[in-house]
Amino acid sequence: MGIIEKIKAIEEEMARTQKNKATEHHLGLLKGKLARYRQQLLVDEQASSGGAGGSGFEVAKSGDARAVLIGYPSVGKSSLLGKITSTKSEIAHYAFTTLTSVPGVMKYQGAEIQIVDLPGIIYGASQGKGRGRQVVATARTADLILMILDATKSKHQRESLEKELEAVGIRLNKEKPNIYFKKKETGGIKINFQSPPQNNLNENVIKLLLKDYKIHNAEVLVRDSNCTIDDFIDIINDQHRNYIKCLYVYNKIDAVSLEEVDRLAREPNTVVMSCEMDLGIEDVVEEIWYQLNLSRVYTKKRGIKPKFDDPLVVRNNSTIGDLCHSIHRDFKDKFKYAMVWGSSAKHSPQKCGLNHKIHDEDVLTLFTK
Ligand SMILES: Nc1nc2c(ncn2[C@@H]2O[C@H](COP(=O)(O)OP(=O)(O)OP(=O)(O)O)[C@@H](O)[C@H]2O)c(=O)[nH]1
């Protein structure tokens, strides 16, 4: 039986099995197997196509961060891209057989955010259909997923996209489960719970899953009592999981009732817009910026005012060391100290080393050896 048939058989068995306390472990084990086969399918396909980037799909990452657009055809992805990316004329069209990916650059607050359009080909990826896998590989590199949805369509569109992303190991708006897991050479299986489990994850099911994955020596510490069986499966498959923020963007609100717009706008991590009527586009841009959680840092030379129109952009929680790395790979070696003005400084200016955490809108003078 091929992998696709195996996946199908498990999915069918899961659909047949009633969900209750008695079947919980059995279903958990099936989910574990499903995750393993799906993983294998993605790996096999990548190997046979010479790796995700081998067929030329992978888009070079440029700019300070990357957001990818995901959505069904005709929901308005191109319209949005046209509105928020300023470099329309420079947009490169990467055409590889049936695949087209259009990266554009959104300039905002001095940052350059690459917006990659993955035109409606994500679905079917988890079943090895079409070339969705390369799309998935690109989606994995995103700092933010923009799921573009048609406000006039049913909630099925969102659910099916979420299901596809879920099936390939992309977790939306979720933190990595708080479980310590380490494979060992010897010593058997050691399982501990920091506090009594409140959910379906328990010692027995962990043992069953590890056995199914042929892991005979490992240490497990469940730190969060709300962890589920699915969380543990994610932890065993950790190299193939990506925890990515997702912003749900409903387009075409001009075509639905005010009540419906109001309802959609209240959903978490959601913005609503109408590309056609030019409504809410600025909110989308602001929300992208907010979700990416970037910090702008202005550098200045001694005795000269900083250039506020040309910040260096780093991820939130970055250190001066990270900033040096973003300037140049070897810059850290030349770094002596920095003078820092702004909210991260205890007093302005503060003399700081590489480990100092910078805040948005700090001003820095870097001194080299
Ligand atoms: N009513 C309404 N129609 C819109 C809106 N935005 C886009 N459309 C229409 O929706 C259709 C699809 O828009 P596109 O921007 O091409 O959608 P797309 O998602 O890029 O489509 P694909 O290229 O097929 O993936 C076009 O006919 C647009 O005129 C909107 O805000 N309201």
UniProtKB/TrEMBL annotation:
Domain TGS: from-to ranges: 293-368
The keyword Calcium belongs to this UniProt entry's keyword annotation: no
GO biological process, one term: cytoplasmic translation
Protein name listed in UniProt: OBG-type G domain-containing protein
All residue ranges annotated as the OBG-type G domain in the record: 65-293
Name of the encoding gene: KAFR0K00980
Keyword vocabulary terms for this entry: GTP-binding, Nucleotide-binding
UniProt function note: Involved in ribosomal function.
GO MF, one example: GTP binding
InterPro entries (alphabetical): Beta-grasp_dom_sf, DRG, G_OBG, GTP-bd, GTP-binding_2, GTP1-OBG_CS, P-loop_NTPase, Small_GTP-bd
Keyword Ligase part of the UniProt annotation: no
PANTHER family the UniProt entry points to: DEVELOPMENTALLY-REGULATED GTP-BINDING PROTEIN 2
Organism lineage: Eukaryota, Fungi, Dikarya, Ascomycota, Saccharomycotina
Coiled-coil blocks: none
